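Here is an idea for our session: we take a single protein and study its fold together. To get us started, please write out a protein record for me. Once you have written the record down, we can walk along the chain together.
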Amino acid sequence: MRIAKKFSGEVVSADSRQVYKGLDIGSGKITKKEMQGIPHHLLDVASLKSVFTALKYQKLAKSAVRKIIQNKKLPIICGGTGFYIDAFLYDWKLPEIPAQRKLRNGLDKKPKEELFSMLASLDPQRAKNIDRHNKVRLVRALEIVMISGAPVPLFKSGKNSQYSFVKIGIKIEPDKLKSRIKKRLLKRLRVGLVKEVENLHRSGLSWKRLDDFGLEYRYVSRYIRRMINYKEMVETVERESFRYAKRQMTWFKRDKNTIWVDPPTDEAGSLKSAFSTVRDFLSP
């Protein structure tokens, strides 16, 4: 928000769960108050019962950025889904294979372990970096492989982009990251995460679909169903969130375009390195 205010920017979210209407507390979706009047794009653009793909994100992000630039504002892509960010920045050619209902229904009946085993056999490379617990992504990967007869395309981050951009990452020590993840989870529970998941199920979202959304939604739903106790839920979400954060960091570090800056000590702390990086980028 501080960078957007200083440089007349608008934010484009790059979060694979915040695109869904209703996934608010568990996804950490920014509130109207937190936006501080800064326009945000690509939040709440998908139904919970639909499958949102990287290809859809790519198309919507291009449209949002085009409008922001036309309005003479600075687009700020912000988020943690590295695949979405790079698919947009580097204009990856994503497979345009539509959903195959019959095949998808058949795959959907199989347990996640079997789906992962199938993918490991058909496309070992994709199996290495997929979330083996995310049934939606497993089914989609198998759908692409089985229909195209070829592995899911691999992409490498490079410097070929239609955009001039600066990519900023925030350095943080593992111990501090663990502490922040725990603090964030406890806050989400305090402000109503369990109630949010209960309401989502009550509104018609299946337990299976909630499980597909991963992390908080997966394990809170299991707590609600009494499959695990409260302590187990908290510990598991903390552990899995940290593992996910490490995978995110591995992804971002592969892109040599990323400029790493130190985090401010607190919300009012200095953003000098980030500000100077953006200012240098925007200077003629």
Summary: Residues 3 and 275 are 7 Å apart (CA to CA). Strands lie at 9-13, 40-41, 74-78, 167-170, 258-261. The first helix runs from residue 2 to 6. The mean pLDDT is 89.
